[in-house]
Design goal:
Layout (H helix, E strand, L loop, with lengths): L1 H24 L7 H34 L1 H22 L2 H4 L8 H26 L5 H33 L4 H32 L2 H42 L5 H7 L17 H20 L5 H19 L6
Helix pairs in contact: 1-5, 1-6, 2-3, 2-5, 3-7, 5-6, 6-7, 6-8, 7-8, 8-9, 8-10, 10-11
Length: about 325
């Protein structure tokens, strides 16, 4: 019973902690907590149920195709990546249509949320299943799955989310190619992790297992580096567009420098009394991102963005009019 309770703790707390870190890193325009949690819970419940349902017929078909023995060996390499990655990412196709979804950075956040949710539930199932093997085996499973398997799920789905974010405001033919590319990378990452584990068990070669522990961290570092670069690029987007808006009198020029700094924008005192600072910062940031989306959007969609941009400009000016006389 103690190990079962510890399994619940070790499955949930690390994944929620990882999720909080990813959400916090998105400093310029953090996503709504409720939507991030919905995405996380989809991975934890919806995608898991879907994987259990689709895994049975898929494994059966694989057994018919290549035989029971080979299918049992190759199922984690073929069936798991091909079914689990689309299922984890399914909710992203809904989230991407939300008004809160702006760019590649948001894709990373929501993708990681779905992957971490999936990893949380899958981890618990694995932790609970090895309890009978004793504390040593249980602890080894907890360490490996927390630091590697679950992180793999988050990294893979974050890659799909990033692809959706990058594709969203591109021409239609290019969108398909980008999304397929994102799924291919995610499925390949998943298949490689599972494949090296299977190879290690089949050929009793620890070096193969150790290679897996070396390859996955490299993949995680690469994806994390791209995520951080996207966050940094948001600063350039905000600066470029708000400078142009300041020249048109939409906001004061000194505000541009403050709004591009994650430290200064959170400090109090730079706005006149009466102006709600959080709302002002959010509106100005949304305006910059919406202008960037309009710049990248196909011609047929630019009018839709123009209406949203004008609404944000009007809102920003109205907020400034709330300033109380000194």
């Amino acid at each position: 019973m103690i190990l079962l309770l510890l399994s619940v703790f070790c499955a949930t707390i690390p994944m929620i902690t990882f999720l909080a870190i990813v959400w916090w890193l998105d400093r310029y325009d953090r996503e709504p907590v409720w939507l991030v949690l919905i995405t996380f819970m989809w991975g934890a419940v919806g995608a898991i149920i879907g994987a259990l349902i689709t895994g049975i017929p898929s494994s059966f078909l694989l057994k018919l195709a290549i035989g029971t023995g080979a299918a049992n060996t190759l199922s984690p390499v073929i069936i798991a990546p091909l079914t689990e990655e689309p299922l984890k990412a399914l909710i992203l196709f809904l989230v991407v249509r939300s008004k809160h979804f702006d760019n590649v950075t948001d894709g990373f956040v929501y993708g990681a949320a779905a992957g971490l949710g999936f990893g949380m539930t899958e981890n618990f199932l694995y932790f609970a299943s090895v309890i009978k093997g004793g504390f040593g085996i249980w602890l080894q499973t907890v360490i490996i799955r927390t630091l590697f398997s679950a992180v793999m799920h988050a990294t893979a789905t974050a890659t799909v989310g990033a692809a959706l974010g990058y594709a969203r405001f591109r021409p239609l033919p290019l969108q398909g190619a980008i999304v397929i590319g994102g799924f291919s990378v995610a499925i390949g990452m998943h298949a490689l992790w599972n494949g090296l584990i299977v190879a290690s068990d089949a050929f009793t070669q620890p070096v193969v297992h150790l290679a897996n522990f070396g390859i996955l961290p490299i993949e995680v570092v690469v994806v994390a580096a791209v995520f951080l670069l996207c966050i940094h690029s948001e600063k350039s987007v905000i600066r470029r567009h708000l400078r142009a808006e300041a020249k048109q009198g939409v906001l004061p020029q000194p505000h541009v420098k403050i709004l591009t700094s994650t430290l200064k924008r959170g400090r109090r005192g730079w706005l006149q009394t009466g102006i709600p600072q959080d709302k002002y910062v959010t509106t100005a940031t949304s305006l910059a991102f919406k202008l960037e989306q309009m710049r990248r959007a196909p011609k047929r969609r630019k009018k839709d963005f123009e209406a949203q941009v004008n609404a944000l400009r009007a809102e920003l000016k109205q907020l400034q009019q709330l300033a109380k006389p000194a």
